[in-house]
Write a structure and sequence with these properties.
Blueprint: H1 2-12, H2 34-39, E1 50-55, H3 67-75, E2 80-83, H4 91-96, E3 104-107, H5 111-124, E4 129-132, H6 139-152, E5 155-161, E6 173-178, E7 183-189, E8 199-200
Parallel strand pairs: 1-5, 1-6, 2-3, 2-4, 4-5
Antiparallel strand pairs: 6-7, 7-8
Length: 205
C-alpha cells in the first residue's frame, strides 16, 4: 500500500513523466463523408479491419455510406466483393456513384457459406474491400472476419441489424444508421472515444 501512495505522490508532484498514448495514424482510407471523417480518430475507415454497420432497416443509406470509398478503390483497380447481398445490386446506381462495375464481384451463398466466403476473400489479400451481410453472426464469426481483414490487409464491411448494438463486437469500428432522423452514430472506434453527437446523414435518391 505504501508503494502505491508513493507512486501517486510522485505522479501528482510532477516528478515522473507520464506518457500519453500515441494518436492513431492517419487513415489512407477516407470515408468520403467529411463530417464522419472528422469524427473518427484516424480520419477515415480503420485500415485492414472490420467495420460493422448497424441498420435500422434496409434502404437507409447503407450503400451510399461506402460508395465514395468503393468508387475510389475501383478506380485504382481494386476488386470489390459483395458476399450474399440481400438484394441484387442495381448497376446504374453503382455506376452513378462512380463505382467501376468491372471491379465488382458478387458471391451468392447461404448464411454459413457466406461467412466462409467473406473470410476467404478477406484473407486472400486480392480485394480492396469486402461487403457482407452476416445477420446471424456471433462474436466468434465476427472475430474471424476481423482477423481475416488484418491478414489480407483489406477493408471489411459487415451489415447487421441495429438490435445487435447491445452485443459486444470485435469490430474496429461500429456505426449505426438511423432512419428518423437520418443520422449516423459512432458506437465504437479503435484509437479513441466514440463521438457522442449524431452526424447528419442525408440519403440521396
Amino acid at each position: 500500500m505504501g508503494a502505491v501512495v508513493a507512486l501517486d505522490t510522485l505522479f501528482n508532484g510532477g516528478q515522473v513523466w507520464r506518457g500519453r498514448p500515441a494518436p492513431p495514424a492517419a487513415s489512407p482510407q477516407p470515408t468520403g463523408h467529411a463530417a464522419l471523417d472528422t469524427a473518427l480518430p484516424s480520419g477515415g475507415w480503420p485500415e485492414a479491419a472490420l467495420t460493422e454497420i448497424l441498420l435500422a432497416g434496409q434502404g437507409v443509406g447503407e450503400l451510399q455510406l461506402v460508395w465514395p470509398t468503393l468508387a475510389r478503390l475501383s478506380a485504382a483497380g481494386e476488386r470489390i466483393v459483395l458476399v450474399a447481398p440481400p438484394y441484387v445490386p442495381y448497376p446504374q446506381a453503382w455506376q452513378g456513384a462512380g463505382v467501376d462495375l468491372r471491379q465488382l464481384s458478387i458471391i451468392q451463398a447461404g448464411e454459413r457459406d457466406a461467412l466462409w466466403a467473406a473470410e476467404q476473400c478477406l484473407r486472400s489479400g486480392s480485394c480492396g474491400a469486402v461487403l457482407c451481410w452476416p445477420y446471424k453472426a456471433d462474436d466468434r464469426a465476427l472475430r474471424r472476419l476481423q482477423v481475416a481483414a488484418e491478414t489480407g490487409q483489406t477493408l471489411a464491411f459487415a451489415y447487421r441489424p441495429l438490435g445487435e448494438a447491445v452485443n459486444p463486437s470485435p469490430a474496429a469500428l461500429r456505426i449505426a444508421i438511423d432512419a428518423r432522423p437520418a443520422q449516423l452514430r459512432v458506437l465504437k472506434c479503435r484509437g479513441g472515444l466514440a463521438r457522442s453527437a449524431p452526424i447528419a446523414f442525408a440519403v440521396g435518391h
